[in-house]
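Bumping with the actual sequence this time:
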Amino acid sequence: QVQLVESGGGLAQPGGSLRLSCVASGFTFSRFSMSWARQAPGKGLEWVAGIYSDDTDYADSVKGRFTISTDNAKNTVFLQMNSLKPEDTAVYHCGKGWDERVVHGTIAYDNWGQGTQVTVSS
């Protein structure tokens, strides 16, 4: 079955950086888009970024600060987060796309992992 396991979260200062990883198993990783989304306390799931091959897309709130990438040999999707802000504090989840399309929003992704906590605070 599909399994997604996130790691790399932690505490960062405003302006700092973190790199999240998500290892996938149970499906042919190279055939599907992947996505990151986040959930802050008391809020719904917010889509952050998506990728398939060289096609990437980002939420306006993170564009220019976050970079999504993949390593197909390791079945892993990454999220490099720079210039972090307190409002980036959330649990970050990775999700598998329904097919190869990169869709702006959470609607076309599922099998979300358990997530990794990111806290941005001084």
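The tokens above came from a reply further down the thread. The chain is about 0% helix and 50% strand.
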